[in-house]
Write a structure and sequence with these properties.
Length: 384
């Protein structure tokens, strides 16, 4: 009998869980299966059985193994991060792509813990939890010192990517993994899992690199507070929620402390709003022009009117960029994508486990989401 004719007995609660946790609507599922929403209702009410071919299709779109559909009851999955996005009528409702990224990041977190345990590597937090009553500027100053991010070092980075990678490497030394994946930027710019070790930060590759740097440090603020959250960090945002406000102030003070900003603003006081000056300062400190404007406003170097007028000219910087594409339309190399997505530390964990025969070659390829031809290239690019 052909696969499209084999009927499969599936537990309705399992199918309901798989659809509900996928981000797909019942109507979207029906359209993908070339059937009607009423037929999906019959599957859920056990009035009708899906075919094996239909389960294969659901397996593909939900990114779940076929075995998931044959369970006797739904699996208990770890909770989603607290929703701090402040989107009206969308609390705890996420785009299907964002849901997949959260699931993938949870899996990578679990793998990181398992791989670390295999080689007796510590996964516990190396940072001290802080209270929201502590001043974000003071905590930011402490961490600039701990990360040895001096003004001179920040200026010496050739571009924002170098600063991003430097901070990522430091976070990894503190047992904080940073992953980069593509999500709808209007749905989420970043999230953090701080309820398990090792802690994980995820930023959105559809954002500009300056925005990702800001999101990284904003999410690090949430780790300092011990929270798992998903949100929309933005340097120019004015948050009513005290937690989001604290994390934004921490990120801003970390990336451009007023001790650095004030002398620079004083030096260029008469021409701060000139495009050339904003571009120079943005390149010097690897922060967005919007963030510079926010700091100028906070420190009273410009008026609210000047700030709003100038900020509107830089709205294009917030437009999502296709980070994973090269000029000419081709995709980036597999080894470059892998390093960008999961970082040096995770690749190193996989390589060390493979070298010590704790995992197979097939496991290593699966964990890194690469093909065999890219394996050696990935290892050569990562810092072991």
């Amino acid at each position: 009998m052909a696969r499209n004719q084999i009927l499969v007995d599936i537990e309705p609660s399992v199918l309901k869980w798989l659809i509900g946790s996928s981000g797909w609507t019942k109507e979207e599922v029906a359209k993908r299966l070339k059937t009607s929403p009423q037929t999906i209702d019959k599957f859920l009410n056990k009035e009708k059985k899906p075919t094996y071919r239909q389960l294969e299709e659901l397996s593909i779109i939900f990114k779940r193994p076929i075995a998931s559909f044959l369970l006797s009851k739904p699996l208990q999955e770890k909770p989603k991060p607290k929703d701090y996005r402040m989107l009206p009528s969308k609390t705890n409702i996420f785009d299907k792509k964002t849901i997949l990224v959260m699931r993938k990041s949870r899996k990578l977190q679990e793998l990181s813990k398992e791989l670390s345990r295999n080689i007796a590597y510590e996964t516990g937090s190396k940072i001290k939890r802080i209270k929201i009553s502590e001043r974000p500027e003071s905590i930011a100053k402490q961490y600039r010192e701990l990360f040895t991010l001096t003004e001179e070092r920040q200026k010496k980075f050739k571009n924002p990517y170098e600063l991003f990678n430097y901070l990522r490497d430091v976070l990894e030394e503190y047992n904080i993994f940073l992953f980069q994946f593509s999500m709808p930027v209007e749905d989420a710019r970043g999230f953090v899992f701080a309820d398990e070790t090792p802690s994980v930060i995820v930023v959105n590759t559809k954002d500009s690199i300056e925005a990702r740097i800001f999101s990284m440090m904003h999410e690090f603020g949430h780790i300092l507070l011990g929270e798992s959250v998903i949100d929309l960090p933005e340097a120019t945002a004015s948050y009513k929620d005290e937690v989001e406000r604290w994390c934004n102030e921490f990120a801003s003070a970390f990336l451009l402390p007023k001790e650095i900003a004030k002398p620079v603003f004083d030096e260029n006081k008469s021409q701060l709003l000139q495009r050339a000056i904003l571009k120079t300062l943005s390149n010097r400190y690897k922060v967005s022009k919007a963030m510079l404007l926010v700091n100028m406003l906070k420190l009273k170097y410009i008026t609210k009117t000047d700030y709003e007028k100038k900020l509107s000219q830089y709205k294009e910087e917030a437009i999502p960029k296709k980070e994973m594409e090269k000029k000419g339309g081709g995709g980036i190399k597999s080894e470059v994508r892998c390093l960008s997505e999961v970082g040096n530390k995770f690749i190193s964990l996989v390589a060390n486990n493979y070298d010590k025969n704790y995992i197979t070659y097939t496991d290593a390829l699966s964990y890194l989401s690469i093909k065999s031809k890219s394996f050696d290239k990935v290892l050569s690019k990562a810092k072991k």
